[in-house]
Amino acid sequence: MSVYKPKGRDCYVIDFQLGGRRFCISTEATTKRAAQELEQRGREKAKQLIAAEKAAAAAFRGETPLTMGLAVSKYWEEAGKHQVNAATTWTDLNRALAFFGSDRRIDDIRDADISTMVAKRRGETIKGRKKLADGSPAPLIKLSTVNRSTTDLMRKLLTHARKKWKIALPHEPEWKTHRLKEGGELVREMKAGAQETDISAALGDGYRDLWRFAVASGLRLAECFLQWSQIDWEAETITVIQKGSRSHTIPLTREMRAILASNRGHDTNWVFCYIASRTKREGTKVLRERKKRYPVTYEGMKTEWRRKVKTDLDLELRFHDMRHTRATRTLRATGNIKVVQRLLGHADVATTAAYYAHVTMDDVRDALERDTKSRQTSRRTKKQAS
Q1: Final residue of a structural domain among 150, 178, 206
Q2: Taking a C-beta distance cutoff of 8 angstroms, is the pair 222, 214 a contact?
Q3: In a domain, 346, yes or no
Q4: pTM surpassing 0.70?
Q5: SS3 of residue 273 by DSSP
Q6: 358 is a domain residue
Q7: pLDDT tens digits along 343-383
Q8: Which domain holds residue 151?
Q9: 222-224-228 Cα angle (round to 5)
Q10: DSSP code of 139?
Q11: 40-63 residue pLDDT tens
Q12: Residues 51 and 76 reside in one and the same domain
């Protein structure tokens, strides 16, 4: 039978074969009639899946053109869903799919298409809103967001198709010409003192320690979701996987060791854990229990930062600015940009100099004061000598 209730269970299971494949689907249906209705839907989805797989196989054999629908689906499975910001990638891929259409051949995407895509995205407002909560018009999305969600996304998709799938792209766009200029150097540094104290007080337990570790280490947000196995207490180092799947090891400072030590015993695998403020259920299943600790997630930290720092404290700081802060403070203390490069794990020191070697107004003022003081000392020394 294709619909049956396993012994000891309240819900039915759907089990059938189609196209030489077996499909076994667990349901929440407690009646056979409801399960049979779900079976019909399951069979239709299975047919669609098999048809899509056959079309994809034909495209990758070169028998038929590769379409956006097939390319997006395969790229998601191979790369997109494994990215730290997978949720954003999924949204951007679906936006691109809606723009081009699932039947559009990827080898026919040209410069004019990317220009139109960028122009359309550039005219959109934040989250598609017309007005903000205070009634003022919603601002347009940032140029950096436009770049990441259009040009950068399509470049990654088509580059993946060309390199991994060996798809010929005779009309591949000139990607550099479509990237919008995001502006000059911005000073992205958290101010020591009151601002740092306010952030510490605003963030919840678990989130606060992850943020403190980011400031102390200079790691990216995605690299801060540490497991205990990444820490070598004897060598006093920590190893993370950076962008491009590169391994990067940094030394543990006294401050970092103290932060890590204070989180021992919360979880056997993960370092930073938050305390659930309420119980969350999905049907009869308890997903999260109040007052218990659970590992901090990427999306959870982003939400906490947006609510507590950007909204409640009204600070124009990104979490990534903590990396800028660590880099700037280290450069200011050492005067050695190669040290900063090694800390951040940049392959090229030019990247460090271009994006992390910030010079604030206070830095300029201090330099001028030091120069003036040096010249005054020099003149006094010369007078005494004469």
Answers
A1: 178
A2: no
A3: no
A4: no
A5: strand
A6: no
A7: 999 888 888 887 776 665 566 666 667 767 777 776 677 66
A8: 68-178
A9: 125
A10: P
A11: 888 888 888 777 777 777 776 767
A12: no
The owner of tokens 């992850």 is 210
Contact criterion met (CB below 8 Å) for 33 and 21: no
pLDDT, the chain, mean: 87
Cβ atoms within 10 A of the Cβ of 57, count?
A: 12
Tell me, yes or no, whether 45 and 91 share the same domain: no
- Please report, to the nearest 10 degrees, the dihedral formed by the alpha carbons of residues 83, 86, 92, 94 taken in order: 120
Residues 231-259: tens digit of each pLDDT: 999 999 999 988 777 899 999 999 999 99
Own/partner pairs for 265-270, CB < 8 Å, 24+ apart? 266/206, 266/293, 267/293, 267/295, 268/228, 269/227, 269/228, 269/229, 269/295, 270/225, 270/226, 270/227, 270/228, 270/295, 270/296
Burial of 151 (0-12, 13-18, 19+ CB in 10 A): buried
How does DSSP classify residue 83?
Answer: S
Category of 296 on φ-ψ map: left (φ > 0), alpha (ψ -120 to 50) or beta: beta
Residue 1 has pLDDT above 90, yes or no: no
What residues contact residue 306 under an 8 Å CB cut-off, 6+ apart?
none
Residue ranges of the alpha helices (H) in the chain?
Answer: 32-60, 68-78, 86-100, 111-122, 143-149, 151-164, 194-202, 207-217, 254-261, 298-305, 321-334, 337-344, 349-355, 361-385
